[in-house]
Amino acid sequence: MPFTLEICAGSVASCIAAEEGGANRIELCDNLLEGGTTPSYGTIALAREKVKIDLYPIIRPRGGDFLYSDLEFEVMKRDIEQSKLLGCNGVVIGILLPDGRVDKQRCKILVDLAWPMGVTFHRAFDMTDNPFEALEDIISIGCERILTSGAHNTALEGASLLKELVERANDRIAIMAGSGVRANNIAQLITATGITEYHTSAKGYEESGMTYRNPNVSMGGIPGVPEYGISATQKKEVTLIREIGEKTLLS
């Protein structure tokens, strides 16, 4: 099967880098440090103008858990409608019930609303109480793929579950591995799981152009994140992941 690479892009610039690097699809997000939230109308609209590859905005009204209020659910429906009007190829969703099961009723409403766009179920899957039950539920509501790290912090840590999910899915739905996917482990992931579809931000931090920097004020304060660094997908990393992935599948 062909190697498929999806880039989690946090900006229009990252979308362009993803396409130039050879990505097949973009998951467009805001607030990547919160796991991704729905990008603005302007971001989606301009990204759609600038790139030709498949574009899937994430439909997630806030960070945190995946149990949403009625108001948040209404926001999600409006964002799906706008994504469709802007010419997106699909959307990325995920809603859970309080007990950790997939909220099939609400997710089915979103899948039907999104049609004819495609729908990916995101890593809310990794927060479910039973991944095999969740797999069947997500298949039943009509999603085309599941993004998962195998219920661990990284796909490499969850490799054994990822492999079992592929076997149980039996080509009824695509399993896409994500979280911690980089050029230095893509070959290992392919060998360990048999998965051919991967998700990564392929990001790095680019130095800000600011020359004046107030030493007394911090707007970020997140460990490991430079105050004057701009997170962006790196074209070279995208290309390298694709090259290694394709080479591994051919070997």
TrEMBL record:
* Coiled coil regions, renumbered to chain: none
Which GO-annotated molecular functions does the record name? copper ion binding
UniProt subcellular location: Cytoplasm
Enumerate the SUPFAM superfamilies for this protein. CutC-like
Q: Which UniProt keywords apply?
A: Cytoplasm
List cellular component terms (GO): cytoplasm
Keyword Secreted assigned to the entry: answer is no
Q: Which domain of life is it from?
A: Bacteria
> So what family is this one in?
Belongs to the CutC family.
Q: Write the protein's name.
A: PF03932 family protein CutC
Gene this protein is translated from:
cutC
